[in-house]
């Protein structure tokens, strides 16, 4: 009986996901920002980490995946339409609550929050990141723009080179805004890996760090810090490099180099700069000798 009830609930949620949104849902054409703004009105026990992670999904999917992170002691669900009671007949009350929360349309009085809601820190930082980027409410791909013929005469146009047969892949987007639209390039604050407090403290104290207290996930890689103002991702190295002899220093630098080069490629593919922070001038010199394209900075704040 419980299995049939859950199946009925899932069918109902699927139906809700395809129903037309209310006019208020159209206030933001970017579904990710709209989801973050809607979730900001609810209390979350994890600071909103699940919401930020799932924000690109349709709201019913987000609600289902993050329902467990909701502060259930402060939320009451009212099935004002009666549809959820039918869809989850025989299921636990949890099913009705999820059904009400997942409805794409906002029904007045359906979700009641007890007390004052303080926006989850991760949700707030994600919304602030959008505001700083200037993508306030629209991330829909624009229609291609065609320049009027009068702007450029045919004499001044440079002929496009013919394909050589070596163009196996389309060129990567060069505009940072275009790259930013790729979901994997959107910076997502995530918890520090833990286990190394001095390292985390050093990253948190980085000047202009946009997300102190958090790592930042970009392009599948967890970076130690992000400075949004300069679009720079950081990998912080707090090893006591100077205590080793010259041979050991060179060996250590060579071992770490491939991962640093990979991080640099991942960051630049999304339009970010990449900087390695080290604690000693000797570490900086060793890395730059191995790869002079790396930007290495001695961190005088830690």
Automatic annotation (TrEMBL):
It comes from Pyxidicoccus fallax. Residues 176-185 have a biased composition (Basic and acidic residues). Residues 178-302 form the DUF6310 domain. Residues 1-20 form the signal peptide. It holds the Pfam family DUF6310. Residues 133-201 are annotated as: Disordered. Keywords: Signal. This is DUF6310 domain-containing protein. InterPro entries: DUF6310. It comes from the Bacteria.
């Amino acid at each position: 009986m419980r299995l049939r009830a859950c199946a009925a609930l899932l069918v109902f949620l699927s139906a809700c996901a395809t129903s037309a949104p209310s006019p208020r849902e159209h206030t933001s054409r970017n579904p990710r920002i709209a989801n973050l703004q809607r979730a900001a009105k609810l209390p979350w026990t994890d600071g909103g980490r699940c919401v930020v992670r799932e924000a690109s999904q349709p709201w019913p999917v987000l609600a289902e995946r993050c329902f467990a992170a909701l502060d259930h002691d402060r939320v009451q669900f009212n099935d004002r339409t009666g549809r959820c009671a039918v869809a989850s007949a025989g299921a636990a009350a949890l099913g009705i609550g999820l059904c009400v929360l997942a409805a794409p349309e906002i029904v007045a009085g359906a979700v009641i929050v007890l007390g004052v809601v303080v926006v989850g820190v991760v949700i707030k930082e994600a919304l602030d990141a959008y505001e700083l980027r200037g993508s306030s409410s629209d991330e829909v791909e624009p229609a291609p723009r065609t320049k009027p013929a009068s702007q450029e005469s045919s004499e001044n146009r440079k002929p496009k080179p013919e394909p050589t047969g070596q163009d196996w892949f389309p060129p990567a987007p060069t505009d940072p805004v275009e790259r930013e639209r790729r979901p994997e390039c959107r910076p997502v604050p995530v918890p520090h890996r833990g286990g190394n407090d001095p390292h985390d403290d050093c990253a948190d104290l980085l000047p202009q760090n946009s997300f102190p207290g958090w790592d930042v996930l970009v392009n599948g890689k967890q970076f130690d810090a992000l400075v949004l103002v300069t679009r720079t991702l950081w990998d912080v190295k707090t090893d006591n490099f100077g205590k080793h002899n010259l041979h050991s220093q060179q060996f250590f630098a060579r071992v770490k180099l491939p991962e640093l080069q990979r991080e640099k490629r991942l960051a630049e593919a999304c339009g970010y700069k990449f900087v390695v922070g080290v604690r000693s001038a000797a570490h900086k010199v060793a890395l730059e000798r191995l790869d002079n394209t790396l930007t290495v900075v001695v961190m005088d704040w830690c």
